[in-house]
Design goal:
It contains twelve helices and no strands. The chain is mainly alpha-helical.
């Protein structure tokens, strides 16, 4: 059977996950948090839109409903995120007197604000919540809209309006910006959907895989030297650079190491912050979280799956990242 996995997109997703990890580590160890490496989350959103459109829009047309699609996606994402929440429960227990209620909500991927964070057991889980919301909206509404230019224009305008109060591409991870996070996720996600609709099955020729794979870390490293965040620059990166990367990523070839990094990218993203928090509360260096996170992620490549529950709901097994899953 031919390998239909999109390894180039896998590799880009893996690199983005490492950039997020390094961003959080640098903020904890050397106090550098000014980079826009958080835009890697917007890359995840866009990649999710691209992959879900590629994989499921034909099935939406055949009758796959929003409820069934949500169940399928929830079963795909929840087990791995639950591992992260369980690790993060040690930190959550030190943060609130409402531990059991907050923990139950976090385990179910439901926001419950603790110290201004919607997911106190795993701060990184906020993006997975928004991705699930975008997935449901895709199945319920966006698959019916043939041209997404108007929704994208409205969302882009919303981002500029939000930026009058705070940088729009930092929205979503705390209570004061939670509502604005929906604008953020839909903007990136719908660009991904539109990108697939425009490209179809065509591949974009590229001259250098190394160049394509280097762009994300180069962007995030160079922004460390900027005096402050700029919403216009962030929008240029998200709306201009990221679609080109995804388009180019569909046709590049990568080695075994980057294939492996792509396969562990979702579990790495799911466990890296809880492990850092675990080290923090016990007074250990957060650098210990690095080997543990990679080792744990390697034990569940592509994330854990609940195949038996999928059969209960009589859902078709979701393809792995041979369709370059977006987590």
């Amino acid at each position: 059977m031919p390998d239909t996995r999109l390894h180039g997109l896998d590799a880009l997703r893996g690199i983005a996950a490492v950039c997020v990890f390094l961003f959080h580590l640098s903020a904890e160890t050397i106090g550098i948090g000014g980079t826009n490496a958080g835009l890697a989350v917007d890359f995840f959103f866009m990649l999710s839109g691209y992959v879900m459109a590629r994989t499921y829009e034909s099935r939406f047309a055949e009758g796959l409903g929003a409820g069934s699609f949500f169940t399928l996606r929830y079963l795909r994402l929840w087990p791995t995120m639950a591992v992260g929440a369980i690790i993060g429960s040690f930190y959550l227990a030190t943060s609130t007197n409402e531990f059991w209620l907050a923990m139950a909500a976090n385990l179910l991927l439901i926001p419950y604000f603790v110290n201004h964070q919607p997911f106190g057991a795993n701060w990184a889980a906020w993006s997975i919540f928004y991705e699930l919301v975008a997935n449901v909206a895709h199945a319920a509404w966006f698959c019916r809209i043939k041209k997404l230019i108007l929704p994208l224009a409205l969302l882009g305008t919303g981002i500029l309006v939000i930026s009058l109060d705070f940088p729009s591409f930092t929205a979503g991870h705390k209570d004061s910006t939670f509502a604005a996070g929906f604008v953020r996720v839909f903007f990136s996600y719908l660009i991904g959907v539109q990108l697939h609709r425009s490209l179809g099955s065509r591949s974009v020729p590229t001259t250098s895989s190394i160049l394509i794979l280097s762009i994300l870390p180069l962007i995030f490293v160079t922004t460390w030297f900027l005096p402050q965040r700029s919403t216009l620059l962030d929008m240029l990166i998200v709306a201009g650079v990221f679609p080109c990367l995804i388009a180019a990523g569909t046709s590049i070839s990568v080695g075994a190491g980057l294939k492996w990094l792509g396969r562990i990218s979702f579990p790495l993203y799911a466990v890296h912050w809880p492990l850092m928090a675990f080290c923090h509360i016990y007074g250990w260096s957060v650098l210990w979280s690095v080997p543990v996170a990679f080792a744990l992620a390697s034990l569940m490549p592509d994330g854990l799956r609940l195949k038996s529950l999928g059969k209960v709901f009589q859902l078709t097994k979701e393809p792995t990242t041979r369709l370059a899953s977006s987590e």
